[in-house]
Amino acid sequence: MIVAGLKLIFRYSRCHSGSELCFSIGRVPCATRRLRKPVCGRPQVTFDYCCSLWLYAPPPILEIPQTNYIPLATHYTKLLIGQMNQYLDFWNLMAYDFAGSWDTIAGHQANLYHSHSNPASTPFSANDAVNAYIAAGVPCNKIILGMPLYGRSFQATAGPGASFTGIGGGSWENGVWDYKALPKPGATEHADSSTVSSWSYDPTAREMISYDTPIVAQTKSSYIRDKGLGGGMWWELSSDKPIGDPRSLIKTTVDSFGGTGSLETTKNILTYPGSKYDNLRNQFGSE
Length: 287
Hints:
Blueprint: E1 2-10, H1 18-33, E2 47-56, E3 61-64, E4 68-71, H2 81-85, E5 90-94, H3 126-135, E6 143-148, E7 150-155, E8 176-178, E9 188-192, E10 197-202, E11 207-210, H4 214-227, E12 231-235, H5 249-256, H6 278-281
Parallel strand pairs: 1-2, 2-5, 5-6, 6-12
Antiparallel strand pairs: 3-4, 7-8, 7-11, 9-10, 10-11
């Protein structure tokens, strides 16, 4: 059997009602099923598909020109989650970007839980989002918890829950730093076990950067297992430290699951013999 993958990304656009979105997703499997037929004259070979949806974990965020990202909780009600679920093999929950340049308060961008002692630092939480999808009818094992391999910076601030001014530079976008570049020189890492969040702070530069650290990755791995979720995913792999580095978040997570032998090993046998990339053309055989 040839297994193909189809990734749908939904950013809570105003252009879709819940019924329109559900209809659009429902059309994907219908269209794909038409491709289930013998290939190259070999009747035993068929085409199948895996359909996934990527959604932001916090209340929907709408991108408006010149105003950046603005939380619009009313858009969350547009999702007909129970009806959409029948068409999806799994849900990638983008449990990051909870705080950033669009805010006025420096906050945690990927915390699991809300802070009771410093609520301004946690405008959203991954646990709330996971529970919302489960309550709407998504089986736990179809939810994939998204985790960041980057940090979001806040300048001229006293730290989490305090006001900030500016976001500074970044690895590939202002205010966004690859995890492999963190912590920056002069900064000290901190962690809050009650919210399952971590960050660095440089008191001289007065800069806070919110990102996951190995201790947070371990706790999120335990959360995934205890909650019965389908697994984890990251944005994005090139930002991690080398796998041989003890601070690699991917390796930390995999080890917490019991090592590579404990992971699903269904092979992706899609072939791209005409690709200009050696690794893709060779089906990632050496990786």
